[in-house]
Specification:
Helix content: 10-25%
Radius of gyration: 40 Å
Number of strands: 25
Distance between the termini: 110 Å
InterPro entries: Cys-rich_flank_reg_C, Leu-rich_rpt, Leu-rich_rpt_typical-subtyp, LRR_dom_sf, LRR_TM_domain-containing
Number of helices: 7
Keywords: Leucine-rich repeat, Repeat, Signal
Pfam families: LRR_8 (PF13855)
Strand order of the largest sheet: 1-2-3-5-7-8-9-10-12-14-15-17-19-20-22
Protein name: Nyctalopin
Structural class: alpha/beta
Length: 476
């Protein structure tokens, strides 16, 4: 029995020793616990105004979030050969001395987010962090990133730097051969220059959403052949170069929603054979060029909602090869024969819904799925407006109405001819049409004969009857 227990005791000794060593040098305001790969030190919300003088040598992770730290001096954390993760989020850091992170040779993740007073980083701030893979600079109100700042980080894989004050894509990104993810949203960037992303051959995800991007230069993504996710939504783009996305053959998601694009060009997506999600919603698109989507055979969803589209041509893409969902709501669709193909596709695929009609008036307010299209004897489509006119209740043809109007006009001319010369007759007839009976009778005058009065009175009645008959005939 003793022999069986001996290995358990021997194995438990290092664990107990590590736990004791971890806690013996734990800073007073912090809590420490042993992990499989080292010691976890938690000093968050501890009210610290300076970095503790000593940490456990075995520390693998240190959390100093939400304190009042303002300054990091050289070798601020001493020598911690096992440290892999350091978090300094939500402090008041305003300056980091070059070399502050010396002595941390294995550091892989550094979080400096939400230090709004930082604003500037020295080019040698990250010296000696050759193994750093993740860097978080979110909401530090940085105006720029020195060109050589990230050159000290050859292993960097992920850069998170949104909510800053950049006006351009930081030049420090150029040449980061191992960078795979760059998050630069909400940073006031105004353009993506042709050299902004130079050398980023392993970049897989780039987020530039919610900036002020007005222009993407030709060739801006030429080195980004591995890119899978590109987010350019909620910017100020009104136009794109013809070959804006050339070379992005692995792209899966492209978000251009929330911009000011007025049309969709057939060259934009010509080479994006792997594209699965395409967002063009919330733009000002009025037309889509023929062939714009015809090569997107792998597309799972196309968002065109929230634009100014009235028609979408079948030639814009091949619906037979597009098996994904098509979102078209919030557009002023004109539901005539130009959209009959779309209705057929809605019924057959079930992947298109909610296409509200804005015109013509006979179907306004209906969904396209509810519109009835007729066909002539030779098989041609008939617009709903024409179909409704054809199917309306029968009435006198327009020729009959016109003939009736002419007959009454001729009769009135004969009745009124003896009363006045041609010019006066015309004036009297016009006056009778526009005047009421009470206006006509006083105009006869005291000196007029009873015969003339009776004649005018009868003529006015006859004209009134004629107007009612014509009105009834025209509205039948």
């Amino acid at each position: 029995m003793l022999v069986l227990l001996l290995p358990v005791v021997v194995l438990s000794l290092p664990s107990a020793w590590a736990e004791k060593a971890c806690k013996s040098t734990c800073p007073e305001a912090c809590s420490c616990s042993s992990l499989e790969r080292g010691c976890l030190v938690r000093c968050d919300r501890a009210g610290l105004l300076r970095v503790p003088a000593e940490f456990p040598c075995e520390a693998a992770s240190i959390d100093l979030d939400r304190n009042g730290l303002r300054f990091l001096g050289e070798r601020a954390f001493g020598t911690l050969p096992s440290l892999r993760r350091l978090s300094l989020r939500h402090n008041n850091l305003s300056f980091i001395t070059p070399g502050a992170f010396k002595g941390l040779p294995r550091l892989a993740e550094l979080r400096l987010a939400h230090n709004g007073e930082l604003r500037y980083l020295h080019a040698r701030t990250f010296t000696a962090l050759g193994r750093l893979r993740r860097l978080d600079l979110t909401a530090c109100r940085l105006f720029s990133v020195p060109e050589r700042l990230l050159a000290e980080l050859p292993a960097l894989r992920e850069l998170t730097a949104f909510d800053n004050l950049f006006r351009r894509v930081p030049g420090a990104l150029r040449g980061l051969a191992n960078l795979t993810h760059a998050h630069l949203e909400r940073s006031r960037i105004e353009a993506v220059a042709s050299s902004s992303l130079q050398g980023l051959r392993r970049l897989r995800s780039l987020s530039l959403q919610a900036n002020r991007v007005r222009m993407v230069h030709t060739g801006a993504f030429r080195d980004c052949g591995a890119l899978e996710y590109l987010l350019l939504n909620d910017n100020l783009l009104a136009e794109l170069p013809a070959d804006a996305f050339r070379g992005l053959r692995r792209l899966h998601t492209l978000n251009l929603g929330g911009n000011s694009l007025g049309h969709v060009a057939r060259t934009w997506f010509a080479n994006l054979a792997e594209l699965e999600l395409l967002y063009l919603d919330r733009n000002s698109i009025t037309f889509v060029e023929e062939g714009a989507f015809q090569n997107l055979s792998g597309l799972l969803a196309l968002h065109l909602n929230g634009n100014h589209l009235t028609v979408l041509n079948w030639a814009s893409f091949q619906p037979g090869f597009f098996l994904g969902h098509l979102f078209l709501f919030r557009n002023p669709w004109r539901c005539d024969c130009g959209l009959e193909w779309l209705q057929d596709w809605m019924e057959s695929s079930g992947h298109v819904t909610d296409v509200p009609c804005a015109s013509p008036g006979s179907v306004a307010g209906l969904d396209l799925s509810q519109v009835a299209f007729g066909h002539s004897s030779d098989g041609l489509c008939m617009d709903p407006e024409d179909l409704n006119l054809t199917a309306s209740s029968p009435g006198p043809p327009s020729e009959t109405v016109a003939t009736t109007v002419n007959m009454f006009s001729s009769l009135l001319s004969k009745l009124l001819a003896p009363m006045a010369p041609v010019e006066e007759s015309t004036n009297i007839t016009t006056g009778l049409v526009n005047a009421s009976l009470s206006d006509i009778l006083p105009s006869v005058g005291v000196g007029s004969s009873g015969h003339n009065t009776l004649f005018l009175f009868g003529s006015s009645l006859l004209l009134s009857v004629a107007q009612h008959v014509v009105f009834i005939l025209q509205t039948c």
